[in-house]
């Protein structure tokens, strides 16, 4: 994939750590439905960067329909395509961003590459750049993703690379599909302070949680714009939260997140 010199690129990964799921609050509303907790979680996941802290963070998201190109050279390609398609359409339904499959690389915006562990660096070299620039991510990751944004904060291109044999060995293939594509929508950070969430490396959440659903809804709120600074996001957050409460999104997130989900598709 060629990259514009003006574009800024972000790396995110699925790592090996996996422990038992953190318990939800008992009685009444869950902690993830509390206004301050949601706002703090959004700022951590949307505005902070695990692998790039060199510049002040800003809000990034897609401002155009997404064309997704799928390539498989290892494993069950039909199953991979079904998992990819189901989760992509779930994300489209949540965010309002149209996502279509592309039959060619030429007009693709996201490249979903299913390969082997042994071929991981070659795929990084082809779709991201010099593997040295993502050496830490390669060493730590089961799979990894990358996206580039323009000066306006609009995501322009993205790639996820999943080494099928290694991901299956670590029982993380499904995690890789769900987490990497979700982060490509503009939620690139991980934090163990945010739960229940696929962005928490010490939880066992595989599918989008109600909190993840809320964070995606927030990211694509019409009150936010790509490229907003932390201060601008902070200023708009109260109105965004008011909208979510008024629309019943927070109160009903646990059921809304299931509509069209990969979890429901697989019957889990």
Chain-wise SSE layout:
Layout: E1 8-15, H1 35-47, E2 66-72, H2 77-95, E3 99-102, E4 110-115, H3 120-127, H4 135-140, E5 141-149, E6 155-163, H5 164-169, H6 173-184, H7 210-219, H8 230-246, H9 253-256, H10 262-266
Parallel strand pairs: 2-3, 2-4, 4-6
Antiparallel strand pairs: 1-5, 5-6
If you had to describe this structure to a student in words, what would you say it looks like?
A hairpin with a 5-residue loop joins strand 5 (141-149) and strand 6 (155-163). The N and C termini lie far apart (36 Å). The relative contact order is 0.21. Residues 1-6 and 17-26 have low confidence and may be disordered. Strands 1-5-6-4-2-3 form a six-stranded mixed β-sheet, sandwiched between helices. By secondary structure, the chain is of the alpha/beta class. The protein is built from ten helices and six strands, in the order E-H-E-H-E-E-H-H-E-E-H-H-H-H-H-H. Helix 1 (35-47) crosses helix 8. Helices cover 37% and strands 16% of the residues. It has a single domain, classed as Collagenase (Catalytic Domain) (3-Layer(aba) Sandwich), CATH 3.40.390. The chain has helices at residues 35-47, 77-95, 120-127, 135-140, 164-169, 173-184, 210-219, 230-246, 253-256, 262-266; strands spanning 8-15, 66-72, 99-102, 110-115, 141-149, 155-163.
